[in-house]
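for the recovery benchmark. tokens below, seq after
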């Protein structure tokens, strides 16, 4: 059974190294996030991506920050996010959002922590508008001191398979650096 990120390590989610290796605003812009969009961040944690997303979409947009761990959500709420960022508890395979609610559905380093990654991706696809990007950032299947153990990492080809198993269309795969990649797909109408 995959392990969840430890709440005791919350400080690591905001580290300078993480900001350097994956600058949140630049990453989200590269994925296509724009002003006025509705963005769902699944496994939002303390808001590493959700808070910059709220700045990018502005008041005309909406951000849903979802996580299975209440202490993560409490840490995000303590940062006093803007009113267009809604913090919500969820389960691994059920998101409390209506179908076709989001212009982009996103998760970062969540699939490898999930009991059934295809079920989570299927649910992310349900929440995405047709043809809207469903994006998962993950750790490459390499031995590396940073990130989860090698055994828990998902090879990028396996991530593509999970998207297809979830009923999503595969769009692209991109490596941000040797140890982290993004896979994107979408749901047909």
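predicted aa per position
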């Amino acid at each position: 059974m995959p392990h969840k990120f430890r709440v005791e390590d919350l400080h690591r989610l905001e580290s300078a190294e993480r900001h350097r290796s994956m600058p949140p605003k630049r990453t989200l812009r590269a994925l296509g996030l724009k002003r006025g969009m509705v963005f769902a961040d699944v496994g939002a944690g303390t808001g590493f991506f959700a808070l910059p997303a709220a700045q990018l979409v502005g008041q005309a947009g909406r951000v849903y920050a979802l996580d299975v761990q209440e202490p993560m959500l409490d840490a995000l709420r303590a940062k006093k996010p803007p009113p267009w960022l809604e913090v919500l508890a969820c389960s691994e395979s059920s998101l409390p959002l209506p179908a076709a609610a989001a212009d982009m559905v996103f998760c970062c380093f969540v699939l490898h922590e999930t009991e059934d990654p295809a079920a989570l991706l299927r649910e992310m696809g349900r929440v995405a508008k047709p043809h809207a990007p469903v994006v998962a950032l993950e750790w490459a299947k390499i031995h590396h001191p940073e990130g989860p153990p090698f055994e828990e990492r998902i090879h990028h080809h396996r991530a593509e398979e999970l998207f297809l198993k979830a009923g999503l269309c595969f769009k692209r795969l991109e490596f941000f650096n040797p140890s982290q990649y993004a896979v994107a797909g979408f749901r047909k109408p």
